[in-house]
Amino acid sequence: MSLILTLSELDGDTLARSSRETLTFARSLADAHGWDLHAVAVGEIPDTAMADLRAQGVAVAHALLHDQLDGDAAPAAIAAAINELHDRLGAGALVGSGTDHAAEVMAHVAARTDLPLASNCTEVAPADGGWDLTRVRWGGVLLEDVHLEADVALLTAAPHQTAAADAVSPGAAELHSFKPELDESLHITRVVERASRGGGISLATAPVVISGGRGVGSAEGFGILEELAELLGGAVGCSRVATNNGWRSHNDQVGQTGTRVAPDLYVACGISGATQHWVGCMSAKKILAINTDPEAPMVTRAHYAVIGDLHELLPALVTEVKNRRGVG
Amino acid sequence: MTLNILVAVKRVPAPGAKIVLTEDAQRIDTKHLGFTVSPHEECAVEEAVQLVGKHGGSSTVITLGPPVAEEQLRTAISMGIDHGVLVETDEQEWDALATAAALTDAIQTLEADGDRFDLILFGNESADAGNYQVGIRVAHALDRPVVSGIKAIEPTDARATMKRAVADGFEVLDLPLPAVAAIKEGINLPRYPAMRGRLLAKKAQIRRLTPQRRDGGMRRVRLHHPPQQQAQTQMLGTGADAAPAVAALFEEVGLL
Question: Which domains does chain A possess?
Answer without folding.
Answer: 3-188 (3.40.50.620), 208-327 (3.40.50.1220)
